[in-house]
Amino acid sequence: MIQTSTGLVGNSFKLGYRFQRYWDTSMAIAFFSAEVGTGLFLVSFYFDLLSGMILGLAITGTLKPYFHLAHMGVPGRSWRAILRPDRSWISRGAISIGLLIGFGVLHVVNRSFGLEATLGLPAALGQAIAYLAVAGALVVMCYQGMAMSDSEAFTLWASPLVPVASFCYALTAGALAALAVGWGVLSEGQRATLSTLALTMLLVDLAVVVAILLRAKGKSKGGAFSVDLLVRGEYAASFRNLVVILGLVLPAALLAVAGSLRLVELFALLAMLVGFFFFRMLMFKAAVFEPITHDLAGSFGLPSAR
Question: Rounded CA gap, 269 and 273, in Å?
Fold first, then answer.
């Protein structure tokens, strides 16, 4: 049993904080894969980088479903998740991934073989396919954060900034990955634009992460407890060294000093991806259930978690 001196009460009936352990490593990999792959597809779409679009679709279309299904108890019934878009972000996300993969593949095929000219299809059809793929990508980049922010039980997650972080991290990863994949194809001006975008987004990511922590700390005692775990407690070293320093500060410094060198950009990409993955992991690990009766305990003379 977890020691109660820290405010954690494990599975006991005492008042206090309990970790969520429903979403774990497999879900962190699923979230991470979807956002990295979709960010790469979207940035590559803008720069018309075919290899980046293909790789982005492959990452999202394979790793995301595999690790998400690995988390589910009965993968054979996972198709039911798509049936309730009116009430479930998981359902909306499944539909958006279907849009992204389906229309994204059609766009890549059309871009590769020129189906409009070959088959005599109207140009408007090709544009509609492309826009539907982009719409699916935009939802995929945000919906996982929206699913988290809908959960009021975890103050660390229950913030409109969480889907913002999902989108910003995905766009950052997409910019750095597109720069790496298309280094020999993109023009010097395009590489400079991507490098500037990535540097800007790294600074935005840092600001959003800090804002998430400040909001959670001020919103409730459970939120303050989660933030303390990330800043001073059990996960502080990993959060500081891997998420902030390695994942945000170091790649920003590398891009600012020598972003025009390919090896430097590759190191920046690797560092950012490591930090991004640990951000996903630690957001799951540090989330604690909000003790609903916590504030009522004292009025009944009961012990409460400190």
Answer: 6
CA angle 300, 304, 306 (to 5 degrees): 150
Q: What is the pTM of this model?
A: 0.85
pLDDT confidence of residue 1: 33
- Report the C-alpha gap between 7 and 25 in whole angstroms: 24
End-to-end CA distance of the chain: 17
Nearest Cα to Cα of residue 34 among 109, 85, 106, 100: 100
Q: What is the number of domains present in the chain?
A: 1
Rounded to whole angstroms, how far apart are CA atoms 306 and 14? 12
What is d(CA 246, CA 268) in angstroms, rounded to the nearest whole number?
Answer: 9
How far CA 107 is from CA of 22, 60, 115, 121, 130, in Å, comes to 36, 16, 10, 13, 6
Q: Following CA atoms 43, 46, 50, 52 in sequence, which dihedral angle do they give, to the nearest 10 degrees?
A: 0
145 pLDDT above the threshold of 90 = no
Virtual torsion, Cα 209, 210, 211, 217, nearest 10 deg = 110
CATH number at residue 252: 1.20.1630.10
Whether residue 124 is contained in a domain is answered as yes
Angle 161-181/262-285 helices, nearest 10 degrees? 150
Is position 191 within any domain? yes
Structural domain of 210: 18-287
Decide: 265 and 195 in contact? Cβ < 8 Å: yes
Mean pLDDT of the residues in the chain? 84
